[in-house]
Structure formats: structure tokens, C-alpha cells
Amino acid sequence: MPLPVACDPWALETLTSYVRIPSVSAQGRGIDESCEFLSRTFAGLGFRVERIATAGHPVLLAERVAPGARRSIVFYNHYDVQPPEPLELWSSPPFETVVRDGRIWGRGVADNKANLIVRLAAVRDLLARRPDLPVTLRFLVEGEEEIGSPNLGAFVATHLHRFRSDLCIWENGARTLDGRLELILGCKGVLHLELALHSLGADQHSSRGAILPSAPWRLVWVLAGLKDADERVRIQGFYDPVRATTPADREVLAQIPFDEAALRAQYGARGWLGGRTGIDLRHRLFCEPAVNINGLTSGYQGKGNKTVLPSSASAKLDVRLVPDQTPEGVRSLLRGHLDRSGFPDVEITHAQGYPPARTPVDHPIIRRVARAAEAATGKTPVPIPMMPASGPMYLFADHMPLVGVGTGNPDSRAHAPDENITVEDFRLGQEVIVHLLEEMAGD
Amino acid sequence: MPLPVACDPWALETLTSYVRIPSVSAQGRGIDESCEFLSRTFAGLGFRVERIATAGHPVLLAERVAPGARRSIVFYNHYDVQPPEPLELWSSPPFETVVRDGRIWGRGVADNKANLIVRLAAVRDLLARRPDLPVTLRFLVEGEEEIGSPNLGAFVATHLHRFRSDLCIWENGARTLDGRLELILGCKGVLHLELALHSLGADQHSSRGAILPSAPWRLVWVLAGLKDADERVRIQGFYDPVRATTPADREVLAQIPFDEAALRAQYGARGWLGGRTGIDLRHRLFCEPAVNINGLTSGYQGKGNKTVLPSSASAKLDVRLVPDQTPEGVRSLLRGHLDRSGFPDVEITHAQGYPPARTPVDHPIIRRVARAAEAATGKTPVPIPMMPASGPMYLFADHMPLVGVGTGNPDSRAHAPDENITVEDFRLGQEVIVHLLEEMAGD
Questions:
Q1: Are A39 and A51 in contact, with CB atoms under 8 Å apart?
Q2: Residue A13 contacts by C-beta under 8 Å, 6 or more apart in sequence?
Q3: Cβ B270 vs Cβ A346: under 8 Å
Q4: At B292, which helix (H) or strand (E)?
Q5: Which residues, other chains included, contact B423 with Cβ-Cβ below 8 Å and sequence gap of 6+?
Q6: pLDDT at position A177, please?
Q7: HEC secondary structure over B319-364
Q8: Strand order of the sheet with strand B59-64?
Q9: pLDDT tier for residue A438 given thresholds of 50, 70 and 90
Q10: A-chain residues within 8 Å CB-CB of B285?
Q11: A135 - beta bridge partners?
């Protein structure tokens, strides 16, 4: 395979070996092999590595303590990937790294094997020049991210003291269409739940709907009572814990590239919710909580009509949370709201979720990350206050400043066939970390 | 088969032959055979019979004109029955009439072969004694009731002048648990429809729900705008055509046996809609319109959760109508309501239905029916202002007074295995018609 000009040969070679390991956590494949490969690689760079057992797949903790370190940094990554299926949709074998058309293709390159490799390559590169770099380096690599990190919470609770640092670099990130690095400063939390109503012993002829309680009607009223067409959530106290947006937040929101016309066309939407636009629209996407209906079900859903009065009805919801809302807090407010508003019989089931995670955009250490990103790319980076989606970022962000910066692009196809990153992002990713480690070493 | 003491041998013999014909309209079986059998029977009783072709199964029109008739009466029946399946759940072969435990068993005995036979037996019985009975007798027997009477409207439009009478006796009826004959004076109308919403080109990740329109939320608001928890329909003008309830109506409502505690337990309901009770509860069931949700569907409905923002949502509804509401009128009011309330994009599809049908409880000819019922049973009958369910009764009731009185019982199992009537109801049914014909012949 001819090497692209700008690429670090060690980085591409290491990535190729790493991608070859089919570390599909959902299928329990390649777990040991991944741990062994990474342990060797860390050791080769002078790290002390420990493979720590969990109730699931092991976590690797690698550390290189710098005597007289000015600061410490921890990188969170995961060695597992999504299943490669459907195989027939791949242009090249998923577990072989292929360089073609300015991109690197293979399962896991974007999510998130290349991210780990560029970080290691940056460490290798910089330590070769500055072996006395006054930064303590830590890597935490888990093996269950793609199956929901079921054991990460317990791991963090036990081992936090071993990896807590001045900064956590999250697993991934991307460049915008105009080539600026995103700095992901957190993610919204989420509360998944189901609301279920049972009003009768069995379905009845709908003519009885004149006198019998109707589960679907009651569900409609419950939901309409949660949020009206003004899009304001009506659960008492819902907004109370929400941190106020700062002028610095509004400033970064203004910087986020967001082509409203193009996105609306792509979504096939008539307009944005509540007619918002500009910074107000981005504020809603990146900074505000939301209540979503994922599914509604009741009664007859087949062809034609059926004169049935359904005995039950249910809705699946997700509530997107922002600091300092919590899944438990919102669940408890919702229970109170239902009880007070005449729906004590509505069951809340399948409630689970994550709290939100967020590092302030004007945190001093984030300024160092921004300077590193600008030094590497020549362009002002784009801080994203919170990703609209949710994940277990809070496990780290609750304890240290956190930022996601990485090698993705808008067409990286994470989780899909033909997953890829660009060669340029692979090169840049390494350079960003070199600059960042220098920033961490500075005054 | 030993004859039960009180039974008219001709009636039981004729019913047995009639039940033997497997006249399943859904399967196109026994149609010709039914027409031939009934034509012979009518002719044997001195009727002029015509078999009239329709776009589906033929309609039989039988008439016996009485010179110098005081009044005329038309009986509506159907010769078709529901399919007998599942056969294994029958205690005896469905197309054999079996007398056992004081009941007559067989497919169609309750719905509605025995009803036709007792009417014919009454005519036969009375004419033997009063050949000059001054009442013109008509029978209309269709063959598609069990598949929704798709050609009955066109038939009535063309042939009404040939059977329009002073009174129409509808196909069926029943006795209450305390042995009183129900007089069914009409039925509610119905408008079936589906409300459908499409808000996006495709489903999206639910994190986008913060800024993108949500089809299920909009559906919730549309429905909540149709009816609030106070159970009052909010479509402007919906109640305007509703005829006021008369003191006579309230009097008959008070007479309807309705064991609220037993029924609530049977339905497994915590309470009645809006906390109604007594006459107010019966008024809602028998005299008021209602909007029912038959089904709700949107997004993910499987196990666990899925973070999806559904692109579409829909609801199946039926609106139960009372005089003088019409399906077309309510559909048009609903369209206007949606357009005015910010939901012009909500589609109304699959709209179809029947208008309501109702003969006033204090109509003079209904008093004759009530006297006949009382004379036969020794008990005050129970007028039912309107059945809560719907059917094509309006085709007749719009043109003449109409009442349903028949041989059913609360456990007749129409449409189900082990369909039956009681021997006593079979005897009584004949006697009621004898008395009724005498009433029709009186001053």
C-alpha cells in the first residue's frame, strides 16, 4: 500500500494492525486480542499498562507519569466497534485498512480506532523530541462503548482516583464542512421512559366509548399536558435546575456553521420548531431540554377501520436534559405532575438514562485546546456546547473538564458500511494532539 | 326431534329448513337456494314475490295487498349469515337446528333467520283466522347485511315507493334480563376516519426533536383539540344539529334496565365517563354523540427504547352521530376546525359512515307496537331510543317510522359459535307479531 505523502508511517501501520482485530463487542469477538495489542503498543511508548477486569470486557488503564508534571491529561477511547454487517455493502473488506481517494476505509477508523492511534502517534512524536515533557499522560480504553458501556459507571466509581486529570479528551470529534475542528464540550442527558395506561379489562365495541373511559384519549390528554404547541414543557419545576446561558455561550453558538435552508431541505421539514432561527435555533438544539415522543401505540392499526374501544395505550418518550437536570429528578417531577393532574393511574415504566455533561466554553483549559486546534488547522475551531444526543460522558465530565476533538468528517459513516476518515484528518488529528500536549506543558 | 310444547310446529319446521341453507354472503354460498326457499314460502302464504337483482346478491320483495287496508307494514330482514368458523367451537353442527336446554341452536337463528320465520308464522297464524285482515303486508329480505349492505342504498333509492309503509319492523331485537321486550327505535350514525400527519421526509434521531417538527406531538395536539378531558367535543358547530331530548325521551331512559355496578365490574372500568350515573349515563349512551379513538400509531412500538423522531403519525377515529348530525356535515366541520386551529396539513382519510336513524318514542304508531309487546309478554316493553352502535337503518327510518323487535336474548352469540335463541323467545316473537298485526288493523 503506497503511503500518502503527509501521513506518519508509524501511525498508519499501527492503525492497520489495530483495524485488523475484529473487536465487535456485541459479538464478543477480538476482546483479548485488542487488549494484548494495545498493551504492547502502550508499553512500547513507555506507559505502565494495567488490564482491569469488569463484569464485562476489560478496561485498559495506561499511564506515563512525568516527574514534576505541570498538568495531567486523560484520553478516553474504546477498543470495540460496531458489527460490520451488512458485509455486501462494503466496497472493501471491513477489517482491512484501505487508503483510497484521500480517505482511509475500515470498520472502526472513525469510531474510534484512528482517534486513539493519532493520540498515541502524537505522544510518540512529541516524546521523541521532548522526553521530559512535563505532562502526565493517561489513557483509559474500554471495550463496551458500542453496547452501551454497561460497566463503565462501576469502573469509574472504583478507579476515578487513578485517572482523574486536569483535562479529559473524549473519544471522538469531527471537522465541519468548512474545515474547522469541532470542540465537543459535553452532551445532553436523556431520560427514556414509557407511559402506559390501562382503562378496561378488555377491548370493547367503540359504541361503548360514549360511557367508558378511553385509554387512548387519556394518553392524548396526558401528553398534551406535558407539552403544548408552544413547545414549553409544562411539568412543574422542569426548567428550575436549568443553568442560565452565558454571553460566552451565545458567542460560541453564533460561530457554529448551520445552513438552515440546506438542513431544512435535507430533513424535508416545512420549518423549524416554534419558528426559531439563527442563534435562537442553535440554542434550542445545543442548550435546551426537550421532550420527544418516540412512539405511540393503541388499539387497531391495520388497514381500514375497526370499531374498537382500546383498553390500553402507551407512549415511548425521551427527555433530553441539560445541566443541572437529572434523569431521577425529571422522573420524580413527572410522577408528581401526573398525580396532581388527574393521572395517578398512568404508569411510568422503562425509565433509564444519563445525566447531561458539560464543560463551560470559557473554562481556561478549553482555551488551551482551542489554541492547539487553531495552531494545527490554521482555522478558529468551533466549540459545541453540548451534543444534542446523549451518552455516558458525565461519568468523566462530572469530575474534570472534558472536550471531544477528533478525526471524523460529515460523511464518516460511523456504524455503517464504508466507514472512513480522510487522510488529512488523520494527519491533522495527530498534529492537534502534539500542539495540545505542548499547550498542557506551558505556563 | 321432539317438539317443545309451546312451539308452532310449522315455524320450527320452516326454521329448520331455512337454517340448513348455508347462506354465507361473505363466501357467496347458499344465495340462490335461499331466494328459492323464501320465494316458495312467501308464495305459500299468498304473497306476490319478486326477486330483484342488485350489483351483489338479489333482494326479495314480497307483498300481500289487503283490499281496503287500514295500514301497511314492512318487515326488513336478511337471508345471509356470518361464516360459521371456527367450526370446532360449535356444540352441534352450525347448519342443523338443534333444540336443547330450552334453546334453539344454529348459525343465523338469532341473526336473523328466526326473526323472519316468526313473522311469517304470525302472518300464517293470523290470516288463517282473519283472511280479510285490513293490513297490507310487505317483506324486504336482502342478502348482504353481513358484508355491510353495500347495495342496499341503491336498492332503496330505486324501489322505496314499492315498500314504503306506515311502519317498518327492523330485523332484530331482544328481551332484557328481566324478560321485557326491547323496542329499538333507531341507531346512532357513525363517521369513520383517519387523521394522518407527515412532518419530515424520513425518521430522524430524536435528538433532532429539539428543533424539528414532530408528527406524534402534532397528532397529540390535534386530538386534544378535538376533545378535552371534560368530554365535550370542541369542533365548532358539532352540537348545533343535535335534536333536543324530550321529556318523553327521559322517561324511556329511566325505564331501561342498567345495572351500573354489575356492568362496571364486567367492563373492568374504574368508573363511568365524566362520573355520570342514572339517567344522565343512559342519556350519553343512547342519545349523545361521541368521538372515539380506535387506534393510535407512530414511530417505534417494539421492546425497549429507540431514540427516534418519527416522521409520521396517525389516528383512527369513529364519531358516533345522533339526529340531525350527518357524516358529511361532521367531516366538513372537522376540516374547518383543523384548518382554523393550525393543522391544515392534517389529512382526513378513509372517511365513510352512516347517518343516524331515529323514530320518536312518542310516535303514535310506536304506541301500537308497545301495546302488542305488552299483550304478548304481560310486561311493559323497554323502548331504546337509539342503539349505541350504527348501521344502515337510516335508509328506512328516514322514510317511515321504524322499530326493531325480535327474538334475541343477552346470550344469543350472534356472529359467534353456538348462536342460539330461547324456545320461549321463539314462541313470544310470533305472538308479538300476531298482536302487532291486530293493532295495525285496529282504529
A1: yes
A2: none
A3: no
A4: strand B290-299
A5: B4, B6, B7, B99, B102, B103, B104
A6: 84
A7: EEECCCCCHHHHHHHHHHHHHHCCCCCCEEEEEEEECCEECCCCCH
A8: B48-52, B59-64, B135-142, B71-78, B167-170, B402-404, B182-184, B382-384
A9: very high
A10: 208, 210-211
A11: A71
Q: What distance in Å separates the CA atoms of residue B331 and residue B189, rounded to the nearest whole number?
A: 13
Mean pLDDT value across residues B282-309: 94
- Do B309 and A294 count as a contact with CB atoms less than 8 A apart? yes
Is the Cβ pair A299, B304 closer than 8 Å?
A: no
Would you give the DSSP letter of residue B227?
A: B
pLDDT at B2: 46
Segment A46-102, tens digit of pLDDT? 999 999 999 999 999 999 999 999 999 999 999 999 999 889 999 999 999 999 999
Q: How far apart are CA A80 and CA A30, in angstroms?
A: 8
The separation between the first and the last C-alpha atoms of chain A, rounded to the nearest angstrom, is 43
Q: What angle do CA B311, B312, B313 make, to 5 degrees?
A: 145
Strands (E), B171-263: 182-184, 186-187, 189-198, 204-205
CA distance B42 to B124: 10
Cβ atoms < 10 Å from Cβ of B89: 11
Q: From the centroid of its chain, how far is CA B54?
A: 22
- Other residues' Cβ atoms within 10 Å of the Cβ of residue A259: 10
Structural domains in chain B plus CATH codes: 9-187+356-441 (3.40.630.10), 189-242+289-354 (3.30.70.360)
Residue A290 at interface with chain B, using a CB cutoff of 8 Å? yes
Parallel/antiparallel/unpaired status of strands A71-78 and A382-384: unpaired
Beta carbons of A406 and A438 less than 8 angstroms apart:
no
Q: With bands split at pLDDT 50, 70 and 90, how would you rate the model's confidence at A435? A: very high
pLDDT (average), residues A241-253: 95
pLDDT given at position A2: 47
For A228, the grid coordinates are: 403544548
Return the number of other C-beta atoms located less than 10 Å from residue B3's C-beta.
12
What's residue A387's pLDDT? 94
Mark A127-136 as b/e (b = at least 16 C-beta within 10 Å): beeeeebebb
B388 — contact with chain A (CB < 8 Å)? yes
- Interface probe for A, chosen from B296, B297, B390 (most Cβ of A below 10 Å), is B296
C-alpha cell at B96: 342443523
Whole-angstrom Cα distance, residue B142 to residue B52?
A: 10
Q: What is the secondary structure of A186-227 as a DSSP string?
A: EE-EEEEEEEEEE-SSS-EEGGGGGTS--HHHHHHHHHHHHB
Nearest CA in chain A to B342: A229
E strand segments, A80-158: 98-100, 103-105, 135-142
Closest CA–CA distance from residue B316 to any residue of chain A (Å): 7
Query: Rounded to an integer, what distance in angstroms lies between the CA atom of residue B147 and that of residue A186?
Result: 61
A309 touches chain B (CB under 8 A): yes
CB contacts of A199 in chain B (<8 Å) are: 269-270
Nearest-CA neighbor of A239 among A165, A291, A194, A292? A291
Closest residue in A to B294 (Cα) is A308
CB atoms B217 and A227 under 8 Å: yes
CA distance A314 to A216: 8
Q: To 5 degrees, how large is the angle CA A21–CA A22–CA A26?
A: 140
Helices (H) and strands (E) in chain B, counts: 12, 19
For residue A382, the SS3 value is strand
Q: Can you give the pLDDT at residue B305?
A: 82
Test the B interface: residue of A206, A300, A325 with most B CBs within 10 Å: A206
Within 8 A of B267 by CB-CB distance, chain A residues are 200-201, 204, 208, 212
Query: How far, in Å, CA of A362 to CA of B192, rounded?
Result: 58
Q: Angle CA(B235)–CA(B238)–CA(B242) in degrees, nearest 5? A: 165
